């Protein structure tokens, strides 16, 4: 399989805004894409996970109205919580809490495998394009970095917009990043939340893009 051509890549940086407070379920508004109909919504009020969720690795279960996720040491793999919602362009907003001070990722796959991911830590987030495992010369590529405090043990909100090769990410704490990369303009299999340690998730909502 040939590596898709990278026609345009924009490296973006952002700083933390001291005037934005962390908030669960913050009503973030899209910055670059126009939201269409709601494709999916879950606030985990029920006792069991919905049918569109799949636990691929680790332990993921509803606890006190949120999903608690963690990896299993014996699996020797990060915990993976998959939302089966195929899409090409979409907007996702969700609340999260870094439990152990390390972080998690929101990962996108194509039919060919890993595509790109947003990696979140207490120091901010990055947007990284994944290497093509079928191409020995392919490497992970840093596309964007937004530095700023994301306090562990507190709830925060993130929105990720994908439209063609354009990806825009923002948090309720004022971090923002915006990139364009033609290799990302492909069908995606859904949304994968990934953690090597543990994380809490809530208020997941996905829109189509008009």
Write the layout of secondary structure elements.
Blueprint: E1 12-15, E2 35-42, E3 53-57, E4 59-63, E5 66-70, E6 79-83, E7 90-98, E8 104-110, E9 113-121, E10 124-129, E11 141-147, E12 156-163, E13 166-171, E14 176-180, E15 191-195, E16 198-209
Parallel strand pairs: 1-11
Antiparallel strand pairs: 2-16, 3-6, 4-5, 5-16, 6-15, 7-12, 7-16, 8-9, 8-15, 9-10, 10-11, 12-13, 13-14
Give a structural overview.
With 210 residues, this protein is mostly beta strands. The protein has one domain (36-209): Exo-inulinase, domain 1 (Jelly Rolls). Helix content is 0%, strand content 50%. The protein has strands spanning 12-15, 35-42, 53-57, 59-63, 66-70, 79-83, 90-98, 104-110, 113-121, 124-129, 141-147, 156-163, 166-171, 176-180, 191-195, 198-209. An eight-stranded mixed β-sheet has the order 1-11-10-9-8-15-6-3, with no helix packed on it. Strands 2, 4, 5, 7, 12, 13, 14 and 16 form an eight-stranded antiparallel β-sheet that branches. The radius of gyration is 16 Å and the shape is globular.
> Could you say how many structural domains there are in total?
1
Trace the largest sheet across and list its strands.
1-11-10-9-8-15-6-3
- How is the biggest beta sheet arranged? 8 strands, mixed
What is CATH's topology name? Jelly Rolls
| CATH first level | Mainly Beta
Task: Write down how many β-strands occur, each being a DSSP E stretch of 2 or more residues.
Answer: 16
Individual helix count: 0
Judging by the overall fold, what is the CATH architecture?
Sandwich
Uncertain stretches of 5 or more adjacent residues:
1-20
CATH superfamily: Exo-inulinase, domain 1
How helical, in percent, are the residues? under 10%
Percent in strands? over 45%
**Distance separating the two termini:** 31 Å
Structural class: mainly beta
